[in-house]
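Quarterly update from the structural biology core.
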Amino acid sequence: MRRWNRWLLPVLFVCCLAMQLAAFAPSADARSMLRVGVHTLGDTGMAQEATERVQDGAKSFYSRETDYMQAIANYAGMEVTFVPDSWEGCRTRLMEGTVDVVLGVLPGGPDMQGLSFSRLPIGWQRTPEGAPPLPNAPDYHVHPLYFAVRQGNEVLLHKLDVAADRLGENRPGFLTTLEQVYAEHGRRFGLRLTPEEQSYLQLHPVIPIVASVDNRTTDRVLRQRYDDDQIRIYPTVVDCLRAVENGEADVTFLRQEAAQYNIYQGDFPDLVTDGTVAFSLEMASGVREDVPMELLTVLDKEIAYLGPETITNVAARHDKRMENERSLRSVFYSYPQYFMIGAVVTLVLIFLFVVHYILSRCAHISEMQSLLDEDRATNRPNRSWFLREADALVAVLPDEAPELSVVVIGVQRTDIFISTYGRDTLISFLQHLADVLSAEDWVRRVATHGSVGEVVFLAKTESIAALKGHLHETFKRYEFATVGGMLVRVPLTAGISPIAGKTPEGISLIKAAEALARADFAMHEAKDVLAYDDKMLAEAHLTSRMESLQEAALGREEFEIWYQPKYDLVTKRCIGAEALVRWRSEELGFLPPGKFIALFESNGFISNLDFYNLEHVMQFQRDCRAKGLPVVPISVNQSRIHMQEQGYLRKMSALTRQYTTDGIELELTETAFDFASAEQREHSIAVVAALHGLGFRIDMDDFGSGYSDLSLLNYLSLDVMKIDRSLLLASEGSDRMRAVLKKMVELGHMLGMEVICEGIETEAQEDLLMDCGCEYGQGYLYGRPMPRKEFEEFLKEHA
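Predicted structure, tokenized:
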């Protein structure tokens, strides 16, 4: 219904405009032919006139009856052709259908049977003195004449009768004028002027400039009345009218219908003409509208004096055609009041349309804004609404008001929670958490982001520590969701970002959008609750930049291999080393592995880096043999992702064919076998067995650092057990842990493995390990990681 109302006014406006234009639109009007029989029965004047008008074989008849019939045909919208014949011939033609109408008929008599007569007479017939009475005519001198059609053609008769009625209504004196013209043929009266008119002509002698087209009328009429310098010839009728309009000429004489047509069309609104014929050769005069009234009166009398109205019926003939072909401009000049009404109606409709459009647009914008500001999942305000409201609230807070912070609470691993408990459980929990926070007095403007499992709000911040306390308390009380009648803990984290105070101009130094982005970032980095600081952003930028540079750095060999020695605790001789990677970046500078290893493991680039490191270590061993340097086993770390990597064994086999596995150890951690499915675990064990078969020694790195799966010792053929430094540190202050350390060393020896402990920094730690039976060690006490050249020199002295 709302959509229908929205388009109702535009549709009405278009319909009204179309109706106005349709009222003036031209329409086709084909004119039918009316064949009229002309005879000389008892009408000597008509016969004489008809005879006089037949010239050069042209079938043109000008008499009282023919002029009147021409006018009726024009009002009927028909073209006329006259057919001369005797009365008997005309009647025969009428009955045969070769003519449609016969003029000058007296009703009555046997020879009038089969005819239907017009309702109104078209003239009168006078019987000359001494002439015999007319057939079928009463015995008096004046007889009314009618036109007739054959019986059965009443449709045509009715059409012509209606046209005669219209002619009588529009020009009631037309028939009388024709009677005077043809009854008093040849008689003229002198031109009579008033004294004022005569005085005007004496003071203003009229020497008009006449515009005309070059035709017979100019030669036969105009040149007899005007001098050659008064006549200006133009190529067309329109050019003549334009000359009068522009003032180049004072008057033009044109065919009456041509003058009326062009002026009536509105192309020359400054010109006027009337229906009076100026000359017998079908001429009408037109003058400028601003001529003096006295001159216009003189011209009217001149026209009346020069000749009667002989072809005024031409105007009626062209009425319909001009109405159908009228231009919009002519209609405007003819009916300005209707155009004003139409303009007012149009403006009102436009105004209503604009008002309706504005109201509809405002409603639409409001509806769209509500959609933009609503979280579809929880049906609560979303982040878009929160940002706008937060900025508005901060802008009006007084300077002494407590500082505000943007807080984002998110559900950890939302995808796992949804797959376990369902999306509806998550949405219900977020709605409940938002309701609880909205009721707290330290909370302002709560919004939700259901698709990612977050609640966002503003919090009053007396201190970050106090705000963290509020959040921890909230987590304890409301971090549970109800699933199937039981409570399920929902792991939550929160990020905090204060909105800085305002400047003297009242502008917030940090917009809500920036604070929200910072709080969101802190939430993803948090273990429980974390406040944002600039170091976090710097770390994020560094991480992003390292990720964009990693491929290029590998191609430029910016990654360097450093070596940390392993030694015999008793002899203090170097018995091996561990290859460690450093990044010397052209853009970022020198970076230790703690800056980039975790990133490369998360994005998978660690696979490329491991192969890079392994190949460089193999090259180093080859170069040591070539230089005659001592060759000791060097261990290279291998990421757990290799255990499931396609083509890993193929690449390792290719390296063994290019180099040799002699003196190469691969370090793996227990996480390399920590997979969800038994198939993945078994595949990893198979991969390690294949590596062992290629000739690589296998080290178990960080043994004892977490929950150790001792069953791996049964499945894997391990060569070295590398005890984690955390176990060494725990053994320094605990006899129980020292006993555990000792048993682990004994276990390794019993399984035929070399046992080495990493992280030795003091001689006391070294003595402790020797007491536990550990034979090898690695740590800063003996040697720090060093570049290749330094390690080569170290080997010369300690191997």
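The chain has a mean pLDDT of 80.
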